[in-house]
Amino acid sequence: RDTLDKAKALLQSQNTPFRLENFVNGAHISESAVEYIDSVDPKTGLVFCKVPCTQPEDIDAAIHSAKAAFPAWSKTTRAERSALLRRVAELIKKHRELFAAWESIDQGKTLERARVEVDRAIANFLYFSTFILHQKTAARMIDEDAALTYEHRSPAGVFALISPWNMPLYLLTWKIAPCLAFGCTAVAKPSEVTSVTAFLLSSIFNKAGIPKGVINIVFGDGPTTGAALVTSPLISGVSFTGGTATGIAIRRATAHQIGKHLSLELGGKNPTLVFADAYRDSIEQECTVRTAAMAAFQNQGEICLCGSRIYVENTIYDQFVCDFIAHVNETFVIGRTVGAVASRAHYDKIRGYLRLAEQQGAVFKLGGVPKELGAREGYWIAPVVLTDVLPSSRVMKDEIFGPVVTISRFYSEGEAIRLANDSEYGLAAVVLTSDGARMRSVSEQLEAGMVWVNSWLQRELGTPFGGMKASGTGREGGEYSRDVFTVVRTVHLPA
Ligand code: NAD
User: Fold this and answer.
1) pTM
2) Closest Cα partner for 41 from 33, 53, 49, 52?
3) Which one of 32, 152, 240, 417 is most buried, by most CB atoms within 10 A?
4) Residue nearest to ligand 1 atom 11, measured at CA
5) Atom 16 of ligand 1, nearest CA residue
6) pLDDT single digits (tens) 262-281
7) Which residues, listed in sequence order, are joined to residue 386 by a DSSP beta bridge?
8) What is the 3-state secondary structure (H, E, C) of 103-121?
9) Does residue 457 contact residue 296 with C-beta atoms inside 8 Å?
10) How far is the C-alpha of 376 from the C-alpha of 42, rounded, in Å?
């Protein structure tokens, strides 16, 4: 049986919890790991899967497999790679429901949201499979001596691709697709919290015709598996998405490996600015409230781009708070449009912040401190809307990454910009206004890698994606991903 049939059989077996297997050199490796990590269904609190905690020696085998595959893969033509990546996209599409069902079980998100993310994973492969067919080469003549100067790019080598638990398949494929498209090989490691769809993905590469060793997927935690992977001298670069503390740890651990390319997509604590001019009539009001609420609570607030600090112009503040709460109450319903948060540790972390808010006298306009959990309960937290939170409070400063939003007032455009920028992070921002001049003047002063005006989460995969300040180093997307996965040399030919 092929790897996909085997993977499906494993997932459908009644022998829960089932054990995932690493995918190395084109095969699932079933030898027993020394340790396994429990993977829990966040909706029930029950363990359904065991994730191997891959040890450094097994990581080495995966890296050597990618290293051995690199010379041949890096010499394939763009047309060949494009066709293979399109085939990967087709196979994910064919098994869309399987991927979505497991993403929802593993991560806690709703099935509807999981489907959106599987579609975006398919789009990642389709985008980069066609992007590589349309690259232009930069070459120029230097007039003075008629020399020809041109840029030559080539694949950079073997990459470590590391992703977090909030959008597991989507974020891993955001790395795998460009990495392979630009001719690199990889060892990828999903989060130990959500590894199942990466396992499913690993099972389709053979069927798609990707040569052995080009993409290897290993499972495990950060300190053991992730750290061994990123520090290997055979790894040319790291594309990492996750928390800022981990980004710092990776930077530290690889500081002596000067040539190692690091692309770090890190945390955020994103502002949403609501100006009174976005509230002129009932249609505009509805649109403004809907956008702010979506940015706050989509995927339980577990999207790095979620707007968790809402600032509202004083003249509409009371009305906005009232409308916002009514809308959230109606639209974000536990179990229907709101899933469970990803893990017990995350539940406890969110609960800790809400207790702190309570102790500091914040007003819970919606929701409350979730109860202390027993051993076998799901991790459900209803949306929380807080007001009267001190700007200096950790509730306002730290990334909570859950269904928790604060609402505060501002009195002028200048103050709105100052409050928005009063954060160590600089990932994303939302500006809600009907004033055309303000759309630009405010957006261009925000310390954020991505600004959405009267919208949120629209993506064009060629635009630079990444953060300022503590939210990251580098950009990914289209030609920015090409910069991550290729090396460039300038060649001068004399006249
Ligand atoms: P995390 O940093 O704890 O873990 C992310 C990944 O890094 C996991 O696979 C983990 O096993 C691995 N890891 C941990 N320690 C490591 C180490 N020392 N060396 C190598 N790998 C290591 O993050 P998380 O809790 O899984 O995810 C939530 C965070 O991700 C939030 O901060 C969120 O904002 C961020 N995020 C950012 C983006 C973005 O595009 N900027 C997107 C999604 C999530």
Assistant:
1) 0.97
2) 49
3) 240
4) 222
5) 222
6) 999 999 999 999 999 999 99
7) 364, 406
8) HHHHHCCCHHHHHHHHHHH
9) no
10) 10
188, pLDDT greater than 70:
yes
Round to whole Å and give the CA distance between 136 and 134: 7
Apex 174 CA angle, 170 and 177, nearest 5: 120
| DSSP codes, 186-234 | EEEE--TTS-HHHHHHHTTHHHHTPPTTSEEE----IIIIIHHHHH-TT
**Active site (catalytic) residues:** 265, 304
Percentage of the chain exceeding pLDDT 70: 98
- CB 301, CB 404: distance < 8 Å: yes
Provide the 10 A C-beta neighbour count for residue 444: 8
Torsion of CA 156, 162, 166, 168, to 10 degrees: 80
Ligand 1 mean position, distance from CA 453 (Å): 27
Q: Nearest Cα to 305, choosing from 430, 484, 173?
A: 430
For helices 96-107 and 168-181, what crossing angle results, to 10°?
130
Helix (H, G, I), strand (E, B) or coil at 237: strand
Which positions ≥6 away from 21 have C-beta within 8 Å?
28, 29, 30, 52, 199
Amino acid 349 reads: K
Instruction: For residues 443 and 412, give the distance between their C-alpha atoms in angstroms, rounded to a whole number.
Output: 15
Mean pLDDT of 23-41: 89
Q: Give the mutation target among 162, 225, 250, 298 for probing the ligand 1 site: most ligand atoms within 8 A of CB.
A: 162
User: What SS3 state is found at 479?
Assistant: helix
Q: How confident is the model at residue 374 (pLDDT cuts 50, 70, 90)?
A: confident
For residues 106 and 41, the answer to whether their CB atoms sit within 8 Å is yes
**Pairing mode, if any, of strands 486-493 and 147-155?**
antiparallel
ipTM over 0.85: yes
Residue with tokens 């995966």: 62
How close are the terminal C-alpha atoms of the chain, in Å? 60
- In the numeric block, which tokens belong to residue 428? 């994303």
The alpha carbon of residue 229 and the mean position of all alpha carbons in its chain are separated, in whole angstroms, by: 19
Residue ranges in 141-221 assigned as alpha helix (H): 168-181, 196-202, 205-208
Pocket of ligand 1 (CB under 6 A): 162-166, 171, 189, 191-192, 221-223, 226-227, 230, 241-243, 246, 249-250, 265-268, 304, 399, 401, 427, 467, 472
